[in-house]
């Protein structure tokens, strides 16, 4: 499985591609940080993020895109910009028919470090260790993008199995409900 991981942001947007092998084996294909000027117009900044993501999607051909979910931050303006950048990424993936999965920061931290409260340095250190990188990724945002991709690779099989189990349970419940209705009808019970 090849995953494009994106840590969305307007000033710095981490972007990475990770391949997942059998078991928990992962390898880094590419990693970078897309930067936009703080004083540029919002639309121009979003376009730059979009262009970069589109280029990576075309070049690396991922199977799925993993994006950090924005759910709360202290600075509302920062949260809005992050959410807008994440939306641009989702649209670019959707145009190509790619599935987009969102992961919370604590979910990503727990997946790569074992603790949902790990700090940026711990995440970076574990990403380097897991991917056998000799150098730190250029920015914490780039390390976070790698962590997002790793998280998705490791959690996707479990999510798939859970979804399949939920679907089977819903089908069984439907069959059971139909049998109960038939039994009630046969006994002349209405309800």
From TrEMBL:
Cite the PROSITE patterns for this sequence: RUVC
- Sites binding Mg(2+) 2 sit at 68
Q: Where is the active site?
A: 7, 68, 141
| Enzyme Commission number, as recorded | 3.1.21.10
Keyword Cytoplasm among UniProt keywords: yes
State how the cofactor is bound: Binds 2 Mg(2+) ion per subunit.
Domain of life, per UniProt, equals Bacteria
Q: Which GO terms describe its biological process?
A: DNA recombination; DNA repair
Q: Which SUPFAM superfamilies match?
A: Ribonuclease H-like
Q: Give the first-level EC class, as a single word.
A: hydrolase
Catalytic reaction(s) noted:
Endonucleolytic cleavage at a junction such as a reciprocal single-stranded crossover between two homologous DNA duplexes (Holliday junction)
Q: Which residues bind Mg(2+) 1?
A: 7, 141
What exactly does this protein do?
The RuvA-RuvB-RuvC complex processes Holliday junction (HJ) DNA during genetic recombination and DNA repair. Endonuclease that resolves HJ intermediates. Cleaves cruciform DNA by making single-stranded nicks across the HJ at symmetrical positions within the homologous arms, yielding a 5'-phosphate and a 3'-hydroxyl group; requires a central core of homology in the junction. The consensus cleavage sequence is 5'-(A/T)TT(C/G)-3'. Cleavage occurs on the 3'-side of the TT dinucleotide at the point of strand exchange.
Give the record's subunit note.
Homodimer which binds Holliday junction (HJ) DNA. The HJ becomes 2-fold symmetrical on binding to RuvC with unstacked arms; it has a different conformation from HJ DNA in complex with RuvA. In the full resolvosome a probable DNA-RuvA(4)-RuvB(12)-RuvC(2) complex forms which resolves the HJ.
Give the protein's recorded name. Crossover junction endodeoxyribonuclease RuvC
The organism that produces this protein has a lineage beginning with: Bacteria, Bacillati, Actinomycetota, Actinomycetes, Pseudonocardiales
């Amino acid at each position: 499985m090849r995953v494009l991981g994106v840590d969305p942001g307007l000033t710095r947007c981490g972007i990475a591609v990770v391949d997942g092998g059998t078991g928990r084996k992962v390898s880094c294909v590419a990693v970078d940080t897309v930067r936009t000027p703080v004083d540029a117009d919002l639309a121009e900044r979003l376009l730059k993020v979009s262009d970069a993501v589109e280029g990576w999607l075309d070049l690396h051909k991922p199977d799925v895109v993993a994006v950090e979910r924005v759910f709360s931050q202290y600075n509302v303006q920062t949260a809005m910009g992050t959410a807008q950048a994440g939306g641009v990424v989702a649209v670019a993936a959707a145009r190509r028919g790619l599935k987009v999965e969102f992961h919370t920061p604590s979910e990503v931290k727990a997946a790569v470090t074992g603790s949902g409260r790990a700090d940026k340095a711990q995440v970076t250190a574990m990403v380097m260790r897991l991917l056998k990188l000799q150098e730190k990724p250029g920015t914490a945002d780039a390390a976070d993008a790698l962590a997002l991709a790793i998280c998705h690779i490791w959690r996707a099989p479990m999510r798939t199995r859970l979804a399949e189990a939920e679907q089977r349970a819903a089908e069984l419940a439907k069959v059971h409900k139909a049998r109960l209705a038939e039994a009630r009808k046969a006994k002349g019970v209405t309800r």
